[in-house]
UniProtKB/TrEMBL annotation:
Pfam families: Usp. It comes from the Bacteria. Belongs to the universal stress protein A family. Signal peptide: none annotated. The lineage of its organism: Bacteria, Bacillati, Actinomycetota, Actinomycetes, Micrococcales. Gene3D superfamilies: HUPs. InterPro entries: Rossmann-like_a/b/a_fold, UspA. It comes from Microbacterium terregens. This is Universal stress protein.
């Protein structure tokens, strides 16, 4: 059973302070399991998150962070205005539509309440702030795909899982993606 995808965008204001989730929405999501997703993420991550949400008797919040946008200001009624870093505004909207469709396909038979939230800004900080607002019980993320390009990007930006582990107190489930690196192979190619 799925809640409708949220049209609201959450994140942080220019000073890095969390923006409030509307009170009624935050109460409905209290104690949720949050799962960070991007379009094309293997279904395994959503399935694991749903399994833990069911075990914890908690709602599941599928979180997509639009890294191409930043928050400009928030209205007194809680509506968040954001602006694109790039002129291609449609990219974030199409990514949200893909994430919502993929989540619906994977979670259609899950016997848990779930919803989709789109946040903006830095993925680790945005997820941390939403987790604080709804008092999330667990954060779920997937590993990065293997490859030199991904290794270089992770070296410069850090993994979302590692940054979450150092910036908040909740448990994090990191779901491995792809084939594991053999014991005799270097994780960081030289």
């Amino acid at each position: 059973m799925a809640d409708e995808a949220s049209d609201s965008m959450q994140g942080a204001d220019a000073g890095g302070e969390p923006l409030p989730v509307p009170e009624a929405e935050a109460e409905a999501l209290r104690g949720a399991v949050l799962v960070g997703v991007v379009p094309g993420l293997p279904a395994r991550v959503l399935k694991e998150a749903a399994r833990y949400a069911k075990l914890l008797n908690a709602p599941l919040v599928v979180v997509h962070v639009d890294v191409t946008r930043f928050i400009t200001y928030e209205d007194p009624d809680g509506y968040v205005h954001s602006a694109p870093i790039d002129i291609n505004v449609a990219a974030g909207e199409s990514d949200l539509a893909l994430v919502t469709a993929e989540a619906a396909a994977v979670l259609e038979r899950a016997e848990i309440p779930w919803s989709v939230q789109q946040l903006v800004g830095d993925p680790a900080l945005a997820m941390k702030q939403l987790a604080d607002q709804v008092e999330a019980r667990l954060l779920v993320v997937g590993t990065r795909k293997r490859g030199l390009g991904e290794s270089i990007r992770e070296f410069f930006t850090g993994s979302v899982a590692a940054r979450l582990a150092h910036r908040q107190h909740r448990p994090i489930l990191v779901v491995p993606l792809g084939e594991p690196v053999p014991d005799d192979e270097e994780i960081w190619p030289g």
